[in-house]
Amino acid sequence: QLGEELGGLAGRTVLVRSDLNVPLDGTTITDDGRVRASVPTIRELAEAGARVVVTAHLGRPKGEPDPRYSLAPVAARLGELLGRPVTFVEETVGERATAAVRAMSDGDVVVLENLRFNAGETAKTDEGREEFARQLAGLADAYVSDGFGVVHRAQASVYDVARLLPHAAGGLVRAEVEVMRRLREDPQRPYVVILGGAKVSDKLGVIESLLTVADKLLVGGGMVFTFLKAQGHEVGRSLLEEDQVDTVRGYLETAAEQGVEIVLPVDVVVADAFSADAHHEVVPIDAIPADMMGLDIGPESEKVFAETLADARTVFWNGPMGAFEMEPYASGTKAVAQALVERTRDGAMTVVGGGDSAAAVRDLGWADDDFGHISTGGGASLEYLEGKELPGLQVLED
Ligand code: 3PG
């Protein structure tokens, strides 16, 4: 398919934008899900005889080289997963990058250094990105957009390059968009959404639009304390976004008017410090002590959430239920993952979105195929569901 759209692949140099933004501990990749998800398109191109130039970002360096964010370990992992040699170039554009690309043979794969070591990648204006985009485009004959996790970014390698080269969407972007489109336009009902993670302010837009599509919304994670506060509960030292309390109260009212059930925890695990060995206990939500913080949903809430999910035909989950990376606060996230696995086995469409939730389910020992779909997109999937125009998709349609 890519070959047809791009007018042939053999012998042509194809610039691929992947999302290889993986969590690292030093130089060790702690979750390689995005690398694995990027393999099929790169393999497809290489096997068709293209010269594949892979570009990606890692973290948020400040527009100049920063060794902590080098893609070198990611390129090595890509080579292992592809089962073919991958050449890493310590530069994104410039003499060394050009020489490395010129030296390629058909079927070779090169990974260029972190795009964000160049200020032009993330510049806010078209003019600011233009030169860097031209340099990137100058390396190749065609462009494949395969980084679904970045399609919400109007950045040089996502947006501007597509305007300079013959282009196509890669298999990952196509598959992700199809899943997200079904969630947005055509979910089988009941459609239950589970939202967690630290900040409600990151999810305002998506909550608003979910209230017009979903049947039930379960809320956990750090963001739930702003909901509990909006309902009049005291939340002690838990995460709270005071400035969002009124907005959230508005959501609770809208949900009630529209018949969308918002399900909040009935109990929480509170601790006297944000640490695994802090003193912790389970309390009902109307008895959170003033000097403690909520770090997970409690066991009664796990049951309520599981019951709410029991008849769901479509489930979208974004954001952990608690500070799952610390064992005493992992139970709520495990329970939600377990409920999703059961729904998947029952034939429901289940989608896990967002780097943290995807890493959480893998960390907890689940395999990708225990779920219907694990999205590589965090912000991108939320913005898609919110109904926003995503520059990286729009430019491909244009
Ligand atoms: C992500 O991690 O969601 C994507 O890789 C995008 O990264 P960004 O939020 O730094 O643009």
TrEMBL record:
One of its GO terms (cellular component) is cytosol. One of its GO terms (biological process) is gluconeogenesis. It is found in: Cytoplasm. Substrate binds at D19, L20, N21, R34, H57, L58, G59, R60, R116, R153. GO terms for molecular function: ADP binding; ATP binding; phosphoglycerate kinase activity. It is an enzyme of class 2 (transferase). (2R)-3-phosphoglycerate binds at R34, R116, R153. Keywords: ATP-binding, Cytoplasm, Glycolysis, Kinase, Nucleotide-binding, Transferase. ATP binds at K203, G294, E325, G354, G355, D356, S357. InterPro entries: Phosphoglycerate_kinase (IPR001576), Phosphoglycerate_kinase_CS (IPR015911), Phosphoglycerate_kinase_N (IPR015824), Phosphoglycerate_kinase_sf (IPR036043). Pathway: Carbohydrate degradation; glycolysis; pyruvate from D-glyceraldehyde 3-phosphate: step 2/5. Its main location: cytoplasm. Monomer. HAMAP family: Phosphoglyc_kinase. This is Phosphoglycerate kinase. It comes from Ornithinimicrobium humiphilum.
